[in-house]
Design brief:
The chain contains eleven helices and eight strands. The chain is mainly alpha-helical. The protein has two domains: 103 residues, no CATH class; 176 residues, no CATH class. The strands form three sheets. Strands 1-2-5 form a three-stranded antiparallel sheet. The chain has a three-stranded antiparallel sheet with strand order 6-8-7. Strands 3-4 form a two-stranded antiparallel sheet. Helix 7 packs antiparallel against helix 11. The relative contact order is 0.14.
Length: 300
């Protein structure tokens, strides 16, 4: 397997591989549109850490640095001779086998994959996408409705792992304070003196990333937080009821069409936006989840 040469595949082979393996709206679209070069082979696809950093940092932002952290932590193993994700990838690379990887978890949306523990379980479910799309208003979906969608996914999957209510309440309060700190520091970032802002961001990132694998509610919020961080600074992004909202057309294009929005390289994609929006998604998802759980307990 030549890891130094970009892999060339026929379009149909590439698309089949993306659908089965690269079950991420950003990475899948980037591979489909050949913005992200493939390494390895179609049965064991890899990509360069620096390539994904470059894509995430396009437009002058630093989201790519966060993507590198996720790629290095969650996708550090490729298929070995045993057919499992048991072989450490070479330095500077990460695996594009997403279902069955460390980052795959119960309670996912169901849009791009089936069994999260099974390799090659990627596929498209327009039915599951419709559950999200019906929440749109005027062609946009507000953040709290993404949060409610996350809660719905967790409630549908008995294997999902979510913190108990008391722990979740403490978590939400803690993250709320962190988000307020980061929001206050955004002005400092824009002014150029970003020492305090960077420290606040690192603190929030550390708390969130620690919980991503421990709590599926946090993990799902983090995944949709990446979608917000990628799209939120696109010109023309809207608000609904004072909340940030994403274009349904953009979301549909990335999930179902494997296509990044036109001009995506030109706007900033910032890691601080991931922290802020992940926490915002977490608030609404946790509230909806525990309300529904309480209601179910009362009616049982």
């Amino acid at each position: 397997m030549d890891l130094n040469t970009a892999l060339t595949l026929a379009d149909d082979v590439r698309d089949d591989m993306v659908r089965r393996k690269v079950t991420c709206p950003f990475l899948g679209s980037a591979v489909h549109q050949t913005f992200l070069a493939l390494r390895g082979n179609a049965d064991n696809p890899l990509a360069s850490i620096e390539d994904v950093r470059r894509l995430g940092n396009s437009g002058g932002g630093d989201l790519g640095d966060l993507l590198v952290m996720f790629a290095s932590r969650n996708h550090a193993f490729m298929r070995g001779d045993d057919g499992k994700l048991s072989q450490k990838v070479a330095n500077g690379l990460f695996s594009l086998e997403l279902p069955g990887s460390q980052g795959s978890h119960p309670g996912h949306s169901g849009i791009l994959q089936g069994n999260p523990a099974t390799l090659d379980s990627g596929r498209v479910s327009e039915t599951d996408f419709a559950r999200l799309a019906t929440r749109a208003k005027g062609g946009f979906i507000k953040r709290s409705d993404f949060g409610r969608f996350i809660a719905e996914n967790l409630l549908r999957d008995p294997k999902s792992k979510v913190l108990e209510l008391s722990a979740a309440e403490l978590l939400v309060g803690d993250l709320g304070a962190l988000v307020e700190t980061i929001a206050r520091s955004l002005g400092t970032i824009l002014a150029g003196a970003d020492g305090d802002a960077a420290a606040a961001r690192r603190t929030a990132e550390e708390k969130l990333t620690k919980l991503l694998g421990e709590d599926n509610l946090v993990g799902s919020s983090g995944e949709f937080g990446l979608l917000f961080a990628f799209l939120i600074n696109k010109p023309g992004v809207s608000e609904i009821d004072g909340e940030p909202a994403l274009s349904l057309e953009d979301v549909r294009g990335m999930f179902l069409g494997m296509t990044l929005p036109t001009g995506w390289q030109t706007w900033k994609k910032r890691r601080v936006d991931w922290t802020v929006h992940t926490a915002g998604l977490l608030f609404s998802a946790a509230k909806e989840y525990h309300v529904q759980k309480r209601n179910a307990s009362k009616s049982a």
